[in-house]
Amino acid sequence: MTLKAVLFDFNGVIINDEPLHDRLIEQLLIEENLRPDPVEFRQFCLGRSDRACLTDLLTRRGRVVTADYLDRLIARKSQAYQTQLATIDQLPIYPGLEELIFQIRAARLPMAVVSGAVRSEIELVLERTHLRPYFAVIVAGDQIQTSKPDPEGYLLAVEQLNQLDPTLMLRPQNCLAIEDTFAGIQAAKAAGMQVVGVANSYPFHMMQRQANWAVDYLYELDLERIRQVFAGKERPLVETAEG
Asked: Which among 65, 86, 107 is the end of a domain?
């Protein structure tokens, strides 16, 4: 088996913005005359799309959740997110990201973003950090029907990469996903991919139990060794509970 593509999560892997999302969700609930619960963001929102997160939070509070209602809330939150980012001179991109992208480009592997985030938010961050040209495909939360841990987003990314380059003949088994949450790891594995868990949102030992590989920081990811594991020439860096 050959490693042919690398697929990145966005929030918590490319940009350190989970605390901002937590505050914006809390603000949104308050504006809707609902009481926030600080525990719920990690339970219902981390690694999932705004649509899935807000649906669960509102349903738990007895609100009738219609598609139009959700659309309005997501649009308000997205606008608030982009307004907040406009006040930040240097966006909080994770250390080691640019070096990892350099390694992947040197290996001539296509890259994609697979995220529950709104596409306009992903595009904004990638454009401001000058990373947009490196990602051939973006699969965002507002273009798919389901949220992680469903594998739909990852499978769609494989399909779109193949459409861009039919000679790639990409299958999920040829892909490496980089994730920071349990929902994301489960989605990538359900799609048939191997996963690096980065300890940005959960401790290393928890990533180690869930992912095929675990690292504390992106700059610790040894792409060449992972390629050797894909090729069957080395054992995995981390033995998971699944073996």
From this structure: 86
For residues 197 and 210, is the Cβ–Cβ distance under 8 A?
A: yes
Residue 151 sits in the same domain as residue 166: yes
pLDDT given at position 243: 35
What is the count of structural domains for the chain? 2
Does residue 239 form part of some domain?
no
For 136-180, write each residue's pLDDT tens digit: 999 999 889 899 999 999 999 999 999 999 999 999 999 999 999
C-alpha 217/C-alpha 198 separation (Å) is 6
Q: Are residues 109 and 198 in the same domain?
A: yes
Is 242 contained in some domain? no
Q: Per-residue pLDDT tens for 27-60?
A: 999 999 999 888 888 888 888 999 999 999 999 9
Q: How far is residue 75 from each of residues 32, 34, 62, 122, measured CA to CA in Å?
A: 14, 18, 22, 14
Contact (Cβ atoms closer than 8 angstroms) between residue 177 and residue 193:
yes
Q: In terms of residue numbers, what domain contains 45?
A: 18-86
Say whether both 74 and 100 belong to one domain. Answer: no
Q: Residue 80's CB: how many other CB atoms inside 10 A?
A: 16
Structure-token pair, residue 152: 């739909």
H-state helical runs in 10-142:
18-31, 40, 50-60, 67-86, 97-106, 119-128
- Report the predicted TM-score, pTM, of the whole model to 2 decimal places: 0.90
Cα angle for residues 213, 21, 209 (degrees, 5° grid): 20
* Domain assignment of residue 168, yes or no: yes
CA proximity to 94, closest of 180, 177, 168? 180
Q: Could you tell me the CATH number of the domain that includes residue 45?
A: 1.10.150.240
